[in-house]
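Hi W., the magnesium ion complex you wanted:
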Amino acid sequence: MEPTRAAWVAADAYLADTLVGHDGALEAALEAQRAAGMPEIEVAPVAGKLLDLLVRASGARRVLEIGTLGGYSTIWLARAVGEDGHVVTVEAEAGNAAVARASIDAAGVGERVEIRIGRAVDVLPTLVGGFDLVFIDADKESNTIYLDWAARLGRSGTLVVLDNIGREGEIVRDDADDPKVVGTRDALRMLGEDPRFDATALQTVGVKGWDGIAIALVV
Ligand code: DHB
Ligand code: MG
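Structure:
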């Protein structure tokens, strides 16, 4: 196979079909998001399943998500924390939060999910800490602020997952002027240098293009 975008997408779809399968509530959440005119920038199905496995493998019960969008990843996280678990998810746009609320409730995990509406820089200082896992998937320009809050609201052993660290390979550009690339590079440098984190990152290709995720442990 030639490593074309079409081949990545086909292979990713095959993996999702084989390992994730169909899921009515998640597919309905994506349909609601599309119908509301929101961007289709939620995590890929295989990445949603990765979030689920990271939550369950780490035994996380209190999860913080920064960037709710339509609630697709929120549903994955809320299912994974189990009946006694709790997800706090922060969303800047009230319209997005309303769509997410309906989809999360329809998925049957509404009682586990608290949506905090507001800019994350304003909401994060109001949260009580002790989160076991933090998923950062919001405006890339503020990634270092979110990483700082993840460390402050976490504890030794908290897992931090940062989406979109590949950005179609643009992360290698030290002369980047795209603020999303600059924010991503700043976040990666912080994960490498800040003694509060031990981190790695994996590039991904698939239905969401060429991108990646970083995974860090708060030490
Ligand atoms: C963008 C944001 C995301 O969280 C994502 O997964 C893909 C793209 C963006 O803002 O471009
Ligand atoms: Mg993302």
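The pocket of magnesium ion (ligand 2) is lined by residues 41, 137, 163-164 (CB under 6 Å).

W.
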